[in-house]
Design a protein that fits this description.
alpha+beta; 151 residues; 5 helices; 19% strand
């Protein structure tokens, strides 16, 4: 694993896709755009990627980046990508520190993620099952169609 090999923080990029079907039209494009945004932001901040590993499976896509930087600073940067626009809200970007501990938004005093549909805290909606998988998937399809001019 990247964490053990480099003893550096690791960024994990996946997409927030609820339900059993994780790969459908627009998902590959969104994943590639997420990777592009992470890599561009790291380059702008002069943070070199030491190593990376991509996994594409029917259970979803994931890109891991090992980066020589302070984990909290990386988390703050990644939160800006998650909140950049509607497409960014589909990105699930986790940061693990060099010891493998997952950084949270509260670690950097950032607001919790908001629900795609109602803007309430996402964890509360998920826990209460406020919205069906179908409602969430419909919203994700809407975001993907708008981002990539799909029908």
């Amino acid at each position: 694993m990247l964490l053990n090999g480099h003893k550096q923080p690791v960024i994990s990029l996946t997409l927030n896709i609820p339900g059993p079907t994780k790969v459908f039209s627009g998902v590959a494009e969104a994943f590639c755009e997420g990777c592009r945004r992470v890599e561009t932001l790291l380059a702008q901040e002069n943070l070199a990627i030491s190593d990376q590993k991509e996994t594409r499976a029917k259970t979803g896509y994931e890109m891991l980046y090992s980066v020589a930087a302070e984990a909290a600073a990386l988390k703050a940067l990644m939160v800006t990508l998650e909140e950049q626009d509607a497409l960014g809200r589909l990105f699930d970007i986790d940061v693990l520190d060099a010891n493998g501990r997952q950084m949270s938004r509260t670690d950097i005093c950032a607001a919790p993620r908001r629900c795609l549909i109602c803007e309430s805290p996402a964890h509360a909606c998920a826990r209460s099952r406020q919205h069906s998988v179908e409602e969430l998937t419909d919203e994700i399809h809407r975001i993907l169609c708008a981002a990539f001019s799909m029908q």
